[in-house]
Amino acid sequence: MIFRLNEIFILTILQAVPAAPKLFPLSSCWSSQMSDAPVAVGCLAKDFLPESINFSWSYQNQSAVSATDLKIFPTLMSGSTYTATSQVTLPANDVFEGQDSYLVCKTRHTKGNKEVRVPLPEHKTGSGCTCCTCPACEVGGPSVLLFPPNPKDTLTLSRIPKITCKVIDEKLNNGTFQVVSALPVAHQDWLNGVVYTCRVDNKELPFPEKKTISHPKGDKKKPEVYVFAPHIEELKHKDTVSLTCLVNNFFPREVVVEWRCNNQDCEENYSTTPTIKENDTFFVYSKLTVRKSKWQENNSYTCTVLHEALPNQHTERTVSASPELIPDENCAETKDGELDGLWTTISIFITLFLLSVCYSATVTLFKVKWIFSSVMELKQPMIPDYRNMMGQGA
């Protein structure tokens, strides 16, 4: 059953199906000044159906506790299920001088047998009270989840925002079971921070569970929106191209990003990243993939952004394959051809230049050698022949 009371859900789940008991240990605080007093421990079984249940106890070494030390209290009905308690009373000397640190409480039931360890108190000399600490009990029952409205519902006046309360119980024999309650809310109530509470009453829970939710508070900041056309390399080598929309620097985090093609819903696929936090603001990317042929037909593509900080909560940016945005592929190929021809010319020029330098160096070398040889020949007659002169004098 679902009720609405001001801003509160009340979700009640009523079940009357057979169930095994849930066991809980019960321990007492024992005073050292009462050394002759017996020590009592107990075991609580609750939420079982049908009513019939049997208790038994054993020591740590698995030997049975005497029936004379046991006491079983009458079964009580609580709602549509039952609760029962069993108690063991032992002499203090047997507890503190024995080797056992716990007893084992066992139950037999048509929907399943259970057991739980019940710790015994420890004797501490000089302490006014000897107590034991029970292990943390496992709290069963359903899980309660509360979800905010869809951002598009809260930012579009023609839509109805709803808060969803979901109760999931994974312990039923027929698999996972869940109950969902949806509460319609006013757009401005949610955006203004009204607090909503979902309360769940269920026999599996020790007390009603409440979950609250509200719109995050903080200074609003409108997003900056940028749209990027496909890169020239993508246009040259791929059959599909990517258009990107960057929505940056906004708060709060709830935002909706959509694409339209020629002012109509796009048939092409697009994907948007989860909202990413950066310092005190958020940003997202959205990518639209289109066929290159459609892009080159000069179709227009619009990135539409919904955010509560925007005027009228809406803005958009459009991009198309105009000459100002996308260079022509033929022009790029012509430039590549011109560069190839220029490089060939430069290579030939460098080769001829190197050949010219080598030729000039070779010619110069031969000329220098010839001049040097001529000079040496001219200098030889000018050297006096002293042998002839000495012969004539004689």
Automatic annotation (TrEMBL):
Transmembrane segments: 341-366
Domain Ig-like: from-to ranges: 21-117, 223-320
PANTHER family: TAPASIN
InterPro entries: Ig-like_dom (IPR007110), Ig-like_dom_sf (IPR036179), Ig-like_fold (IPR013783), Ig_C1-set (IPR003597), Immune_Resp_Modulators (IPR050380)
PROSITE patterns per the UniProt record, alphabetical: IG_LIKE
Region forming the signal peptide: 1-19
Name of one Pfam family that matches: C1-set
Coiled-coil spans in chain: none
Key words, A-Z: Immunoglobulin domain, Membrane, Signal, Transmembrane, Transmembrane helix
Protein name (database record): Ig-like domain-containing protein
Domain of life per record: Eukaryota
